[in-house]
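Dear support,

Our group has been running a series of protein-ligand predictions, and this particular one with coproporphyrinogen III is the one our PI (initials K.S.) wants archived with full inputs and outputs. We had some confusion internally about which version of the output was final, so please treat the block below as the authoritative record. The input we submitted was:
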Amino acid sequence: MLKNDLLLRTLRGEKTERTPVWMMRQAGRYLPEYRVLREKYGFFERCQTPELACEITIQPVDIVGVDAAILFSDILVVPQAMGLEVQLIESKGPVLPQPIQTAGDLNRVRVPDVNETLGYVFDAIRLIKQELNDRVPLIGFAGAPWTLLCYMVQGKGSKTFDEAKTFCYTQPELAHQLLQMITDTTIAYLKGQVAAGADTVQLFDSWGGLLSPQDFENISLRYIRQIVAALKDEVPTIIFAKGAWHSLDAMAATGAHGLGIDWCIHPQMARQFAGAGTSLQGNFDPAKLLSPIPVIEKEVKEMLQAFGPGRHIANLGHGILPNVPVDHAKAFVDTVKNFVY
Ligand code: CP3
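Confirmed final output from the archive:
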């Protein structure tokens, strides 16, 4: 039995004593304890070594006091398992030297046996669950198919992902083949995470907001829908499609238990769009954590008031920035924990 199940109860729409809080990308570079391990081991070595992934996953629970742990890994381990080389280059971000551009390239990717290719993640999850010892729930995750296609086709980060869009708009059949392969892999991967002990799973569609509402439905949401349908009876699911606020109603209709929102939409408006049957997660501007602590405290309280009690998971509207001081992250978490409506 979990000692702190605020997150899971909020996702199921049950009453809680207070609002749960965690931060996207909470296991990462703003923590000095993480930077020590980063000096010693490569990025994928940290992901692939269960003891390291476990230690990094638990760091923010111990240091910042969040109400949930999120598995330390990356969304790009899925393209890797599907057969593509992925490098993480300092100051450049992810690079895939041989991206997918033609029908011939598609022959280089496969729907893998996830136990063979991603078994190290399941091992990490089993170890993390043991070490967490029921203190807080563990969030598993994967990238949404459209966001993974962005990297698999563009081959690197981008502000517009124009090459990924060109691929989808000029070779739609190939694009849908690839999206379906990613979807099938992701379903098996997330089911494996749940079997290993993940208490809930989040889909990161970081680039969902680059698409028009129609294209978001056609290229992104239709695959997210399949993934949520395959998992929602096993564990609560959360969809975070950054910038895709126009489709909150359609995302709620998938049956997802939680929807992440960024800071560019009013909580009240998001609630209206999403309806009363889904929990909302967000939506503090990550850059606001660079403000003086009293400003953080004031604005977090305003955010909590705007969401109102119940059906809200306090979080940032995107990942925490590497230059945020730890005491500022802690002020964010503590303000939520001490808040009384
Ligand atoms: O949330 C957590 O703390 C768990 C771990 C986690 C990481 N990446 C670790 C990581 C999670 C959930 C992710 C998700 C992820 N990865 C997303 C979706 C969320 C988002 O922020 O939009 C995306 C788009 C990626 C792809 C990715 N991985 C990029 C663009 C980069 C480089 C830029 C950056 O943020 O550093 C990474 C590397 C990465 N993934 C780091 C970490 C801690 C930093 C690398 C390092 O420390 O050496």
